[in-house]
Amino acid sequence: MTDQDGPGPRDTPHGVVPRPRRRRRTLVVVPLLALLAYGGVAALASVRASAPDPTATDDAPVVGARTERLAVEVAAGPEVAARVVLDALLVVPDGVDADRPAPAVILLHGFASDRRSQDARAADLAADGYVVLVPSARGFGDSGGTISLADPDREGRDVVALIDLLATRSEVVRDGPGDPRLALIGTSYGGGIALVAAALDPRVDALVAIAAWHDLAESLAPDGAGPAGRGPLKVGWTSRLFSARTVLATGDGLGAAAGVAAPAGHDPRDDVGLARCGRFSPEVCALAERAAVDGALDVEARRSLARASISHLGAPRAPTLLVHGRGDTLFPVGQAFANARALTAAGTPVRLRLIAGGHGATGPAAASGGIAGEVDAWLAGWLRGDGVAPPANSADTGGAAAPPSGVAVHDAAGRAGTLPLPPLVVERVLAPASDGSLGEPAEVPGGVAAVALVAPAGGQPAALTTLPGIGAIDGLGLLGAGDVAGQHVAFTSAPLEDDVLLAGTADLELGVAASTGAARLFVRLTEVDPGARTELIAAQVVPVDLRAVSVDPDAPTRVRISMPESVHLIDRGNRLRLTVATTDQAFENLRAPDVVLVDLRDARLTLRSASSANDVVASRPVLDLVRDAPVVAGVALAAVAVPALVGAVARLRGRRRPPLAPRAERLALAAGGPPPVVVRGLEKRYPDGTRAVDGLDLTVEAGQVVGLLGPNGAGKTTTLRMLLGLVAPTAGTIELFGQRVRPGHPVLERVGSLVEGPGLSPDLSGRDNLELHWRAGGRPLVEAELDWALAVADLGEDVDRPVRSYSHGMAQRLAIAQAMLGRPELLVLDEPTDGLDPEQIRAMRRLLVRLGAEGHTVLVSSHLLAEVEQTCTHAVVVLGGRVVASGPVSELGERARTLVVEVDDRERARDLVVAALGQDAVALEGSGIIVTLPEPERAADVVSLLVVAGLRVSSASRRGRLEDAFLQLTAHGVGLEASVPAADGSGGRG
Amino acid sequence: MWIELVRQSRRRRTTVGLVGIAAVPVVLAVAFLLAGAGGGDGDGRGGDPTGLFSLATASGLNFALMSTAATAPFLLLSVVALFAGDTVSSEASVGSLRSLLTRPVPRGRLLGRKFAVAALLSTLAAALVPLSGLVAGTIAYGWGPLVTPFGALPPGQGALRLAAIAAYVAWSSSWVLAVAFALSTTTDTSVGAVAGTIVLVIIVQILDAITVLGDVRTFLPVHEGLAWLGLLAAPPRWADLTRGVLLQLPYLVAGSAFAWWWFGRKDVLS
C-alpha cells in the first residue's frame, strides 16, 4: 500500500490513522494448529539457538510492509541482573510513519513454536494497517532464556518490555505519553501470556486470547469433587507437553543427539542438563518431573502454576475476545468460561466465541475460519472504534463496531446467538436408575439401587475415551476403544422431545463406597443419536478423586461431582447418556485393585440449559450507570421532553373557546359596537414596486351590504386580503369590530370569507371541506350550522364527492357556503357570482339582501355594476388603489342631473340644448347626447324641447353618479363592463 | 392537529407515499424468493458494504433490517421530502391555504400543526418499512434471532434493536423534513419544494462521497447515515449514534426556524 493507491489519512483525536485496506482475510487458525502440531516437524524446523542476528535475512519479506528484526533485551527475572535477548520482528505497513501512525498488535505464538508460526497472521494484520510486533517467547525460537510457563515475572514482564518498546516507536498511535494503542493476540501458551501481560499492564487496549487457560493446575489435574488442581494428572497431555523438551533443546544439543559434530568450544557436559530439561527453566523442569512421578501436582507445583492466572493477578480491563474450542481436552471449555466470568466480574467487555475442536481435536478447528472475521472485528472495534474510529460508514470501515459481549453460540444447524455471561439457564434434574435409565426423579423404578464397578489392579485395562492430539475418539471406530466391561455403568435418557442447549455446569450426586476407602471415578456425558453414534459432550471426561469414602456398602458416602461448563446442543430425538467409569486412559489411574459401589438411591444429575435453543438471552446487567450513561441521559431527556411535547401537541389542538352566542345576540352586539370594518390610509406596496393599494379609506357599518366596485387590478382583492390578515399592509390600519387585525386574530371568528375563487382541498369531499374548515378554527361542528350552509351550496348528492370533480360553479357555491359557516356577523366575499349561472346569481343576490336585512354585514367586491346596484345598500368605487366614489347606492344611483337622450339628429339636438342651457351642459355620445341638468326636475323640459323641435326621440334616461364614475373609468381605458348602454369612449369627456 | 392529520391523510399523495414505501419490502421479498438470494455470511462482499443483504434471509428480523437499510439512504428521504415539501405549498397551489389562514388561528400554530403532521407521517413511513419487512420476512423466512455481521441477537432483543434502528433512521431524515418544510413555505408549487429537496439530498450525498473534502463532510447531515450499524453491536456503540442524533439538530432548527420566520411574514397571494 503506497501513499498513492491508499486512501488518504484521516485526522482523529488521537492522531492520524491510515484506513485499513478492505480485503478478504484468509487467516485460518494457523496459530492454533501450530500448537497442535508441536510434536511434529514444524517445531523441529524452528529450532534455533543462536542469538538473534539483526542482519539475518531469513525472514520472508512481507508484501506492502517493511520488516525490521529486533533484539529486545529484557531482565532474565525479578531481582536478577542477567539479561535475556528476545528475538522479535516488527512489521510496519507501507504508508504508516511518524506522520500517520497506526495502532499496534503484539502477536504471541503457541507452545513449542516460535514467531515464524505467526508470519501469515502478521502479514494479514499489516495489510489491515496495523503495526505488528511478533516476538518469540523466551525459551523458544531464536530468543534466549528458558521457559517459565507464563510466569508473570518473566514471560509477563517480557511483554511489558515489548509494549515499552512500542511506546518509543513513532509509527504507533499513542493514547498518552508512553502509552501506545495496542492489542495483544495470543494463541494457547501465547494466549495465557497475553492474559497475564494484560493483567500486568493497563496500557493494553484490546486482547484476544485463543485457546488460553484460566488455571493451568486445574487444567492439568482437574477434579470433579475436590479443589482445583488436586485431581489425577492428565498424564497423556502432561507427558507430551514436557517431553517436548527434546525438540525444544538447542540446535547444538539436538545436533549432538543426532550425531552431528558439535561446533568447537561446545561443552558436552551442558548436554546433560539440556537433555533432561531442554529449554525449560530448572523450576519448571523439576515440577514436571515430580508431577510425572506422582501422577499429580504437589502443593508447590499448584502454587507455581496458579501464578499465571488472571484469578491470581486480577482481571485485565482491556476488552477481551476469548476464542475457545468446545472440544478442547487440554484446556476444557470451562477454562474459557472461568476467564470470562473473572473478566465480566471486573466490568471488562468480554466476548467468548466458541468454535469446534480445540487442543487435542482435529479437523473441525481448521474449518472454523469464521474466527478470523471475529478477531478482525474485535480489533477494529476496540482499536479503531469508540470515538477514535472513523464513523461506522460503509465506505470507511468494515463496520468497526465491537462485537457484542457474551458467549457467541453457533451450532451445527446454523443457528446463532449470544449467551449471557454467566448464562441464564434453567435446571433440569434427572435421576440415573439401576436399569440404565436416566429419567424424571419421580419415575425411578424400584429394585436394586446400586452398581458394583471393578477398579483393575494397576489401573489397566482402562477405558479409552480421549487421546491427546485427537480428542474425543467417539465414532472413530478404533479397535478397542470405549469402555471396559465391569468397569463402567451408563444411564441413557429417553429420546429428547426438544432441542436442548446445554449451557453451564452439570452436577452429579450419588453415593460411593469402596473397600480400600479411596476411589477414582471418571464421569462423562455423551449425546447418542438414533444410529447409536455417540459424541462426548465438550470432549470432557471429569475425573473424581475420592480419597476418603465409606468402606461400608450399606452406608455409602454421598459425593457431589461438578462437571465444567459446556455449550452443547443436543438435537431432539437424540439421547443423553451419563457414564461413570473407574478407569480412563487419559488420566493417572489408581493402581490398587478395588470394587467401587455406586449407590443410586436419590442419585441426581442436574443439567443447566438454556430454556430452549432459541431462548438465548442477552448478557447485560439490567443497567450499568457508567456504561449506560447515554441511555440514562436519553431516558432523563425523554422524561422531560415527552410531557413538553404532549403539552405542545395539546396547545396545537387549539384552546377551548366559549361557545358561540345565538346569532341574534351576536348581530345585536355587532350593531351596537364599533363598526365591523374601519380602514384608514391603507397602503400595500410589493417588493417589485407595484403599488396595489394606495391610501385607501373605508368604513362599513353594521348591517350594511357594501359593494366594492372596481375594474380588475384596482386593488379590491388586495384590500380584502389585508382585511383578513392574509397580506400584511405596508401602511395604514385595519380594524374589524374595533380590533386591529393580525394574521389569525381571534376576531376573524366573526368573519366569513371567500377570496379570489374557491380555496378548497381537491382530495376532500365537499362536506369534509366544510367540516374541516370549520373545525380548524377550534370550534365544535354543531355551531357551524352546516345544514344551512349546505343548503346555500345546493349541491345535492355531489356534496359527498371529492371537490376535484366539481365544476367551477359548484366549487364557487361550496366556497360561498364555506364562508357562511357559523353565520358570521361579517361576510367578506370576493366576486361571489363568478362562475354562477343566471338563476344561481339571482339566488345569491336574494341571499345577500336577506342577510343584510337580518343584520349581517356584507362586504362584497365586484366588477359588475348591476350586481352592486341590485344587491348592495352601499357602494365604494375603487381605482388605482384609491376610493374614487362611495355612498349609499340609492343616493349614488338616484336620478340625478345627467340625462341621456337618443335622437335621430344629435347635432341639432345638441344645438337646441346648448341654446337652452348653455355650452357646458351638453355633449355628444353614441347615437345621442348627454345633458347635464341644472336641476334634476328639468329633464322633462329638455325632452319636450327636443320633441317640439321635431326631433325623433327614441329614448331618454337618467344616469347616476355611480355610472358617471364608471364611465370615467372607461374613459381611462380600463376595461370595465358597465351594464350601461354601450359607450364608444370617444365622447368629449375628460 | 387532528384536523390537519385528517386533511393530510385523505390526500392521495399520502396514501400513495405510505402504501408505496410499505410495498417495497414485499417487492424485495418476492425478488429474493424469485432470485433465491441470501444465505450469505455477512462478510460484506460485492456491493453489500453492511453485509446485511446477504444475511437478509436469516430471519424475519433480518429481512426487516435489510428493508430498512435498503430504503433509508434515498427512498425514505424522498417520501419524507414529499410529505414535508408538499404540506404548505400544495395548499397554496390549490388555494386552500388562504381559506385555512382566514380561520382565527395564528399562523405559527397552523404551521406547527402542519409540521407535526408531516413529522408524524414521515415517522409512519419510517416505521412501515421494518414492520412490512418483518411481516413479509417472517412469512418467507420465519421468526428467529437477528443475525448480524458481529454475531446474533435473540429475537426479543433483536426486535428491540430493530425498533431502535428504525427510530434512528427516522430521526436521521429529520433534516430533510426541515429543509423540505422550509422550501414548502416559500413556493406555491409543491413539485418545486419536493423535487428541490430531493435534488438537495442527492447533492449532499454526492458531497459526502467525496473523501477529499475531509472534515467538511463530517458536518453533512447524511454523514452518520449508517451509524445505526453500531446498534447491532453489544454493547451498542453510542459514539457515532450520538453524533448522528446531534447532527440533525442544527439542520432541524435552522430549517424550521426559517419556515416559521418566512411563513409568519409571508403575503399569501395564491
What would you note in describing this structure?
The complex is a heterodimer of chains A (990) and B (270). Chain A has 990 residues and is an alpha/beta fold. Chain A has 28 helices and 41 strands. In chain A, strands 15, 16, 17, 20, 21, 22, 23, 24, 25, 26 and 27 form an 11-stranded mixed beta sheet that branches. In chain A, α4 crosses α5 and α21 packs antiparallel against α22. The radius of gyration of chain A is 52 Å and the shape is elongated. Chain B is globular and about 60 Å long. The chains are: A alpha/beta (990), B mainly alpha (270). At the A-B interface, α16, β13, β14, α17 and α20 of A face α1, α5, α6, β2 and α7 of B.
The chain pair with the largest interface is: A-B, 86 and 76 residues
Report the strand count of chain B. Answer: 2
Strand percentage of chain A: 25-35%
> What's the total helix number of chain B?
10
> The biggest beta sheet of chain B, please?
2 strands, antiparallel
Key traits:
heterodimer; A: 990 residues; eleven-stranded mixed beta sheet; ten-stranded mixed beta sheet; 28 helices; disordered N terminus; disordered C terminus; B: 270 residues; mainly alpha; two-stranded antiparallel sheet; 10 helices; 2 strands
